[in-house]
Amino acid sequence: MTDLETPRLVLHPMTPADAEHVAAGSPPAGARWAPGYPSPGERGAAARFLATCAGSGDPSPFGSYEIRLRADGAVIGGIGFHAAPDGRGSVTIGYGLVESARGQGYASEALRALLRFAREQGVARVHGDADTGNVASQHVMTAAGMRLVGEDAALKYYAVEWAG
Q: Which of 14, 31, 108, 118 supports an S-S bond with 143, CB 3.0-4.6 Å?
């Protein structure tokens, strides 16, 4: 599996060995982790990725990706798919950035790259959600081309769909 690149970022596919380090919160030798990485959410995502690998094998290319700065290789967050596409060609995504990297358009840039990749892989629909109070994440999904499709007391739900 190869990296997905954007003008400022590299989305690096996470291997099980990478995920073990993230889940443990312990960087491998030579890794550049930005302060605050991995967040509790990233650690949880890495643990879910490892559980998927153990249960049904590596889901690549529909796994987890580290978000790295192209300029220096520092890992500033993560993005990825919760699972491979379902029978209708739908996937769910999630993402997060360290606090120091927020507000600079990195999350939208990373999400646009992941959406483009999903479409290239034949995915028909991508879902995501954000807490009702997480306006920044809502803006990320809107900026990346997703639209609000529903909400409840806790979450706002977004999706993008492509015609065959």
A: 108
